[in-house]
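From the methods appendix. Each design record in this collection lists the tokenized structure first, followed by the designed amino acid sequence. Records were kept in a plain field format so they could be parsed without special tools. The example shown here is representative of the layout used throughout.

RECORD:
FOLD TOKENS (306 positions):
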């Protein structure tokens, strides 16, 4: 049995069919619906066999003191689409630990903050697509997120990490105490492992006045051969829409592209921001529409219709 707040997803092929081994413990919940077809609209088959999992929490949010840890492995020939249902809400931090709270499994972590850790392994010839809804921190919340990805050469990855300024409908804008997110990706080739990406974002209430009207930030990472066409689209669109000094953009989404390369694994890192969470979500969906060619219409529609 997993410890409190821990989850495991193992996606693998067995007798020519895709299987998921899933386990989790309160307050974490994992649902794995069936992606009915692995075909495209024109009837051709996708290069990989798709699977879908939703990572949820009871009550739709995370309270202070929660320590969520999810481990994921995607085996060769598998494509796993990891989703959530609605934004991840992070409730305010209290002055002291409530009596009813789960025991602190890691004394090194501050029990008055919230921690979420994901350890992801992508094997050679596999594809992992992590597309959660944004993290929304309530007033006084303290949130820490760490995502560690080990990708074997020949694997592919799409990773989305994004957040909003808070509950804007309640007048909470940059009212949380702490938002800290770290994404690390290492590439494995033979017996060698090399760190390809390390991206960190630390925000607090003091950032609000400097961010003007921006209310949503996103970090996108596209790596590997199965999503090379998506990376190429980002490169060409960015080159065509590049803004010169003193020019203004009329788009509601501002974005930039950086090249990523390790062990000849190529890709791009994209940073985007907007004053509208909905505009940014629609922009992300349109830019990642090429994922459908890898996972098929059935799996991709679960993300687009969420």
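DESIGN:
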């Amino acid at each position: 049995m997993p410890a409190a707040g821990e989850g495991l997803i193992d996606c693998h092929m067995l007798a020519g069919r895709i299987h998921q081994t899933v386990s989790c413990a309160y307050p974490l919940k994992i649902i794995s619906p069936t992606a009915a077809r692995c075909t495209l609209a024109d009837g051709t088959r996708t290069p990989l066999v798709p699977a879908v999992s939703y990572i949820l929490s009871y009550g739709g949010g995370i309270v202070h003191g929660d320590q969520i840890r999810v481990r994921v492995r995607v085996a060769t020939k598998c494509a796993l689409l990891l989703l959530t249902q609605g934004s991840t809400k992070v409730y305010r931090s209290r002055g002291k630990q409530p009596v009813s709270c789960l025991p602190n499994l890691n004394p090194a972590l501050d029990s008055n903050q919230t921690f979420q850790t994901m350890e992801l392994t992508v094997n050679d010839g596999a594809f992992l697509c992590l597309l959660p809804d944004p993290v929304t921190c309530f007033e006084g919340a303290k949130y820490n997120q760490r995502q560690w990805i080990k990708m074997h050469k020949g694997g592919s990855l799409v990773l989305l990490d994004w957040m909003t300024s808070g509950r804007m409908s309640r007048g909470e804008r940059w009212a949380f105490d702490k938002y800290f997110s770290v994404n690390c990706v290492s590439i494995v080739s033979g017996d060698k492992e090399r760190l390809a990406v390390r991206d960190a974002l630390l925000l607090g209430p003091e950032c609000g006045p400097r961010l003007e009207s921006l209310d949503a930030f996103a970090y996108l990472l596209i790596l590997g051969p199965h999503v090379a066409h998506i990376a190429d689209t980002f490169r060409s669109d960015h080159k065509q829409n590049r803004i010169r000094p003193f020019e203004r953009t009329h788009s509601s989404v501002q974005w930039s592209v950086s090249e990523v390369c390790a062990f000849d694994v190529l890709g791009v890192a994209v940073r985007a921001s907007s004053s509208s969470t909905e505009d940014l979500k629609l922009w992300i969906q349109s830019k990642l529409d090429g994922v459908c060619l890898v996972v098929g219409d059935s799996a991709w529609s679960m993300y687009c219709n969420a």
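APPENDIX NOTE: The chain has one domain: 6-243+250-304.
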